[in-house]
Amino acid sequence: MSAAVSQAVPAQRSHWLVYLMVFGITVMWSANFIAVKYAVEEMPAVLVIGLRTLAAGVLMVPIFASTKRSVTEERALRSDFWLLVALGVGGVTVNQLFFTLAMDYTSVAHGSLIISTTPISVLLLARLMKQERLTARKILGMLVALSGVVLIQVTPEKSGGAHWLGDLFALCGSLAFAAFTVFGKQITNRHNSITINAFAYFGGSIALLPLVLWLGGSIDLAALSTRAWMAIAYMAVFPSVLCYLGYFHALNYVSASRVAVFSYLQPAMATLMAVPLLGETVSSTLIIGGCIAILGVGITQRG
Fold it and tell me: Could you give the residue ranges of the DSSP H alpha helices within 184-302?
């Protein structure tokens, strides 16, 4: 995911086609959980995220180069250069690294559910930075969401493939993205989504290149299956590039709060895909706890 920014929304352009596009983006982001699972079956998680980042960085080069920027934007780009790199590496690359590690250690059902509570992490960090106020409704929502997550962690009835370490990695990824959202709030107002995502993948590519070369040399890349390479390609093209560009395009016509509603569908979509494609099982406790957690997130965002 990437940080959403509020934008003016033309009333006449809130068309059903935009919602259909956002729904498609949600499906592709949900399928990303499956793609990562396929990839980490055959190669280390760090190599997976490294290859994904490098490929996405290459794809962003022509997009970034062809984007027209005003004199003001060019000046801001020069002054914020290293800050953009730091935010991109810390908020996007680290976030996706933890996400990939999470999928290596836990189930899609658990990981997607915990990642869906990211708005709670954003709210808490924003409160610490004095960017947000905590209302009674937001506090209630956080407690409800927390109770749902706690329920699925303390119960002995686990979903197939779930492990607390992977869930912890998913939480760390959520916190990394929350930090990106909060600390990058001002800088995202000065730069468009293409610039922010480009620097995220450019910086991430440079940071991960040594690890990719090292790990890539320790395994036989030619022996990897077509499915594994297709998973890497999917992660680079769709969730890393096209989905982000489409997401921010949708924000030109639909309010951020309405677009955010679709994120509630991700845990269910990802889980429905994981059952037939990965053979995961879903416990009744996960269903109950997941519904409680998503309800809590919804209450918080409406608070």
Answer: 185-188, 193-218, 226-237, 243-250, 256-261, 266-278, 284-302
Question: Measured on CA atoms in the order 159, 164, 170, 171, is the torsion positive or negative?
Answer: positive
Q: Number of H helices and number of E strands within the chain? A: 16, 0
Backbone dihedral angles phi then psi of residue 161, each to the nearest 5 degrees? 85, 0
Regions of the chain short of the pLDDT cut 70 = 1-14, 156-160, 255-258, 260, 303
Q: What are phi and psi of 223, to 5 degrees?
A: -85, -10
Residue listed under structure tokens 């990897």:
224
Which of 217, 222, 213 is CA-nearest to residue 51?
213
Q: What phi and psi values does residue 80 have, to the nearest 5 degrees? A: -100, 10
Contact 13, 213 (CB under 8 A): no
DSSP 225-254: -HHHHHHHHHHHHIIIIIHHHHHHHHTTTS
Extract the tokens encoding 120. 């709670």
pLDDT in tens, 201-226: 998 998 899 989 998 888 888 899 99
Question: In this structure, how many other beta carbons lie within 10 angstroms of the beta carbon of residue 149?
Answer: 22
> Which single residue is written with the structure tokens 């610039």?
195
Query: Are residues 88 and 202 in contact, defined by beta-carbon separation less than 8 angstroms?
Result: yes
Domain boundaries, the chain: 11-302
Instruction: Provide the token pair at 209.
Output: 């290149």
Q: Residue written as tokens 């686990």? A: 158
Report which of 155, 148, 161 is spatially closest to residue 109, judged by C-alpha positions: 161
Instruction: Locate 274 and state its tokens.
Output: 């994981």
Return the structure tokens found at 6: 């509020």
Q: What is the pLDDT of residues 30-86, one digit of tens each?
A: 999 999 999 999 999 999 999 999 999 999 999 999 988 888 888 889 999 988 888
State pTM to two decimals. 0.86
First to last CA, the chain: 22
